[in-house]
Amino acid sequence: MVLFPYAVLLNDIDMEGAEIPATANYLRGTFDGLGHTIANCTLQASLFGNLYQNSGVIKNLQLINVIQDCTNIVTTSVSAVRYGFLVQTANGTIENILIKGEVINMPEGIAHWGLICYNGTPVIKNAIVNVKSMGSTKKLMAANISGGTLDGVYMVLNDKTLASISNVTDL
Predict the structure, then answer these.
(1) Rounded CA separation 102/5 (Å)
(2) Is the pLDDT reported for residue 60 higher than 80?
(3) How much is the pLDDT for 73?
(4) 34, 52, 93, 129: least surrounded by Cβ within 10 Å?
(5) Quick one: pLDDT at residue 79?
(6) Tens of pLDDT, residues 127-169
């Protein structure tokens, strides 16, 4: 399903521990959080699915106390988690984002390729990813992308700053 909206988040949302299942949606429009927060939920994959070819935008949003549960998205046949907290594939713009959460049920030896997004050629500006990992820390990346632009992207693991990422080559 391709979603074309211009949606805004008018208030903070407390999900009260809700589990959000995986979605295959493509966001082609804009989701503007207006600086509000989505809090207290468990993601089975990415919150928004995918950003559609150079037209999807997610901006001005905070994800607080969000858990990414790798139980159902990691199998023995893969070497990495391929879902970010926000999106799986990002071919649009992600800006002014704060993600504070936790990765759980991450088997040893498995990499997490992209806490913001796993794939694509996004423009990512002004993003902070602050996560705790209760498992492997073999390879945690803010974004695993093959192109695009990173500007003002910071990553913190277990309350220790790992990287200030200014461009794709820093990954």
Answers:
(1) 29
(2) yes
(3) 66
(4) 34
(5) 62
(6) 888 888 755 555 556 666 667 788 888 777 776 665 554 433 3
For the beta sheet containing 111-117, the strands, ordered from the edge strand earlier in sequence to the opposite edge, are 80-81, 111-117, 140-143
User: Do residues 120 and 94 touch, judged by C-beta distance below 8 A?
Assistant: no
What is the C-alpha R_g of the chain?
A: 14
Look-up of token digits 């159902």: 72
Q: Do the beta carbons of residue 92 and residue 51 sit within 8 Å? A: yes
- Tokens of residue 44, six digits: 């089975």
Average pLDDT over residues 40-68: 87
Residue 74 tokens read as 């990691």
The full DSSP string for 81-95 is E---SS-SEE-SEEE
State the Cα–Cα distance between residues 133 and 112, nearest whole angstrom.
10
Three-class secondary structure of residue 114 per DSSP: strand
Which residues have C-beta within 8 Å of that of residue 160, sequence separation ≥ 6? none
Which among 132, 138, 130 has a CA at the least distance from the CA of 161?
Answer: 130
Task: Take residue 139 and report the two structure tokens written for it.
Answer: 């390879």
| Token code pair at residue 2 | 């391709």
Helical H segments across the chain, by residue range: none
